[in-house]
Design a protein that fits this description.
The longest helix has 19 residues. By secondary structure, this protein is mainly alpha-helical. GO terms for molecular function: DNA binding; DNA-binding transcription factor activity.
Length: 119
């Protein structure tokens, strides 16, 4: 098993999951859903935009060069997984990451990929 001394500290709940994965299938399933959400370039680009802060659908469309219907479809999917939240102010909807963990996962994966290409 990989050492966690140089990475994110493992809290008690994660330590319990590591000791008894079979007893924690719901958490494992939800984690697999997270990786499924990150598995498409379109959603990954959108989440990178949101890693910078709140954004409207229009801003996400302009930043990612994805179509508005596709962005809306992906946002609905990401909201369903509780990865993205929405804050409505008047007629405008502002989307944001629900927590910073998703941004850290994406940035760590990108760093791994970029560093891998440098060797």
């Amino acid at each position: 098993m990989a050492s966690t001394s140089d990475s994110t500290p493992v809290n008690a709940a994660v330590k319990q999951l590591l000791r008894n994965p079979e007893g924690n299938l719901e958490a494992i399933s939800e984690t697999a859903d997270l990786f499924k959400a990150l598995a498409t370039p379109s959603r990954l680009k959108m989440l990178l935009v949101l890693a910078h802060g709140e954004a409207t659908v229009t801003h996400i469309v302009e930043s990612t060069e994805l179509s508005q219907p596709l962005v809306s479809q992906h946002l609905k999917f990401l909201r369903g997984l509780h990865l993205v939240g929405v804050n409505r102010i008047g007629r405008e909807a502002y989307y944001s990451l629900k927590d910073d963990h998703v941004a850290h996962i994406i940035l760590d994966a990108l760093a791994h990929t970029v560093e891998g290409h440098e060797h």
